[in-house]
Write a structure and sequence with these properties.
Radius of gyration: 24 Å
Number of strands: 0
Largest sheet: none
Distance between the termini: 41 Å
Order of helices and strands: HHHHHHHHHHHHHH
Length: 313
């Protein structure tokens, strides 16, 4: 699950923190990097567990309504949502159950939030269409949760605020992790039952190596990379560059040198996007121009053995 987008984000954060920390210990910083990455995977599991918590809340409320209907002789409430096949399968998922057993804080500690979210779901048109639809099968149950996640969980300010309270590591993770939760919902198959595989923490050891090598190259070769920035910035006001911009470019140059298989255009585009989020409004354009100039200079002088498209006239 942990991909290069998440890794780049974490390395930007941890490199900035490394220089802000008076006790610069690369071994400690590297451990913090991997701990931070593991917390992103925890968030993935935590958000899947939210679906289970909402379903349990719906069953709790269903029991109250059933008792009331029996007492008053009124029609029985629908059980369709409370016993949604996909949600029940997720509830029984062995990997998710194992994860929950290791957590000190779970959704049972947030009954008010879970209850409020369930009420929002009940009031949604997606929920009403599902309850009133005669289609009653696993595929429809799974599709319901894909729609609910996209409309009521993916963009949810209350949830984001709550997650920020629960872990400082989750501040910038949710947008990326949401895509993996949606991917997981889509991949679920009824025949797999409780043994349905969730996404692994890392797709391969290659991603771990990428994180380790990129972070170490960024720190250990900082002087060299900042020298390249100075060389390429003769036509730029380098002295007025935001400190975060220097960090972002330093990591980008580290990636250019350390990973021959990653095209220069990919590296430049990825770090320009990060600049839009982490630095000043003008930073993206500045960093785009700087990194392009640096890459061309390094290729031209033979210090970087990669190809680059000719400059536009």
């Amino acid at each position: 699950m942990i991909n290069r987008e998440i890794i780049r984000i974490k390395i930007v954060q941890l490199t900035y923190a490394y220089y802000q920390n008076g006790n610069k210990n690369i071994e400690t910083a590297e451990k913090e990097l991997f701990f931070s990455l593991s917390k992103a995977y925890d968030l993935y599991n935590h958000l899947l567990a939210l679906i289970v918590a909402i379903t349990k809340e719906s069953r709790r409320r269903l029991e109250v309504l059933q008792a009331k209907a029996k007492r008053e002789g009124t029609p029985e409430p629908s059980t369709k949502f409370a016993f949604n096949r996909f949600a029940l399968q997720l509830e029984e998922n062995k990997q998710l159950c194992d994860f929950n057993e290791t957590q000190k804080h779970t959704w049972t500690d947030e009954p008010e939030f879970v209850g409020k979210l369930f009420e929002q779901i009940e009031q949604s048109q997606t929920y009403k269409d599902y309850i009133n639809n005669n289609e009653d099968n696993y595929a429809a149950d799974r599709e319901l949760w894909r729609k609910l996640y996209r409309t009521l969980i993916q963009e949810n300010e209350d949830l984001e605020a709550l997650l920020e309270e629960q872990s400082l590591y989750w501040n910038d993770d949710k947008d990326v992790v949401d895509t993996f939760v949606l991917k997981t919902i889509k991949r679920f198959e009824e025949k797999n039952g409780s043994k349905q595989e969730l996404l692994p923490e890392y797709d391969s050891e290659e991603e771990k190596d990428y994180a380790r090598k990129l972070f170490r190259a960024t720190i250990l070769n900082a002087d060299e990379y900042q020298h390249y920035m100075s060389e390429a910035s003769r036509n730029w006001d380098f002295s007025r560059l935001a400190y975060m911009d220097v960090i972002i470019m330093q990591i980008a140059i580290a990636e250019m040198f350390t990973f021959p298989s990653i095209p220069l255009s990919v590296t430049i585009n990825e770090y320009v996007e990060l600049a839009k989020y982490y630095s000043t409004p003008r930073s993206a354009g500045y960093i785009n121009g700087m990194l392009d100039a640096i890459a061309r200079h390094l290729v031209k002088t033979g210090r970087l053995l990669k190809s680059i498209e000719p400059a536009k006239q």
